[in-house]
Amino acid sequence: MASTLIPECLIPIFKYLEDDPVLLFPCILVNRCWCQTAIPILWSNPFSLTKFDSRYGSRRMFSLINTFISTLSQESKNTLITHEIKIPEVANLTFDYPSFLRVIDMLCIDLAVKDWFAHPNYGKISYTSTQIKLLLSILTTHLLHNSSFIDTLKISHTTIIKTTGTTSDIILDIIHQIPKTTKNCFSNLKEFQYNSDTPIMEDLFLKLSHITNSIERICFTIYKNMTISALTLLKTQRNLKELTIQYHIMYDILIDQFAISTFLDKSNTLTHLTLEKLFFPLNYLENFKTLQELSLTDCGYHDYNINDWLTFSLITLPNLKKLVYKNPNPIYLDIFAKFISNTNINYHFGSKLSQIIIQCCKFQNPDNSNLLLSSISSNCPLLSFYSGPISSKNTLELSQLLISCPFIKNLRLHPLTSICSLNNTLIPEIRSSFDPLLLELCKAPLLHLDTLTIVHGWKIQSNIFEDFLKVRQNNGNIDGILRGFNFYWNNTVVIGDLVKICEEYPDIIKCYGEFNGII
Length: 519
Known about the structure:
Blueprint: H1 7-16, H2 21-24, H3 32-42, H4 49-52, H5 57-70, H6 74-82, E1 103-105, H7 106-118, H8 129-146, E2 152-156, H9 167-177, E3 191-195, H10 201-211, E4 217-222, H11 228-235, E5 242-247, H12 257-265, E6 272-276, E7 293-297, H13 306-313, E8 322-327, H14 333-342, E9 355-360, H15 369-379, E10 385-389, H16 395-404, E11 410-414, E12 432-433, H17 435-443, E13 451-455, E14 458-461, H18 462-479, E15 485-490, E16 493-495, H19 498-503, E17 509-514
Parallel strand pairs: 1-2, 2-3, 3-4, 4-5, 5-6, 6-7, 7-8, 8-9, 9-10, 10-11, 11-13, 12-14, 13-15, 14-16, 15-17
């Protein structure tokens, strides 16, 4: 019986349900063991945006803030009363809920407090920014003081109301106020996310670098250069595994040799590296042998010269499972073909690559798309996601890809036409025809296909697409399994009525539509 499972079995199951309180909450009603096992997980990250945006999010957050206010000391409650903040009436609590908290996300806590004040059950028509900051500060301080340890700290540069301050101010104040004996709540910190350009965060970086060296995941969204204190925080972490740096300045790329030097110091432990708008010479990748996921977005300064690309073609990353490369500058498809081939160090089992995303505005050698697809077919049997270029002429290569990579779930196919050249025209003759590729898709079983997307410059005949749907429907009728999928298109010339056809096959097309933007 499921109700007799021991906690060691229940914990991974409940963690899987963590982001869905509607499913997890009933588990506490089964018996005492289930309740005692589920409650700490249910309350480890109660302010998550997933729970906030759910169907009953507003009511849940109102009840959540009420619960945490009820756990405040009488002194803190008196302070709130002095500032005309109502203290909710809550029955005696069964558990010490603040002690279960493992995630501090200041954006979510800020939203929850504001939502609490605005909730109809609060009973006040108006409230001040001073009241909001006071409650936010008292609650956050209380939670940090009472949690045995914080696993994740997320800080965004969110303004509370007008000139009242930011959530960054609150965290920094708390760091200064916490006695040394209680700083241990951050000593086992595993994840730190920071999105801010406020100067006071520099002090926080230095404080954290003194408190903990156990952070495994760091995500910085920066608006200026990487500061010495930020780099110090990176350097002091002994087992940094995942690093994300996003530079948010329009039409500019950050060039920071000190930052790159720090990344290289951590190359032996990093398994995930994500860089956006930070210049990163490709030859440095040879130092990151442990990488499992690599994402480089707009990390080239103008064009890489051919020597840089040749170096890239010689690099071997044997553990790589996910490759993302996005750049507005031209790239060499034959170079990527060689790089992918190098990931396959075990020719009997193939590469570990399962996700490949290659996106740019223009290709230096578009005729070499066949080399890229052939390399993927020969080396990536576990491929489940491909987003990248393909030519209308690559029917043979597509056929081989679909045979060699039977686990494909998501295909996002880009033509070799320059995106920029398509902005001012919808003339079908300039577009690449998707029909030959669609005919190849008809021949493949595509047992795991979940989403097919065609983007940036195709033209498609709706009657050919309908033939593709009929084939999938007939195959489903034969084996008794109708395999539906999602279909999306963008910047595409459609000959016929694609929407009408999608509507006529609801068992095959789960979701469909045209979208805007670049993906």
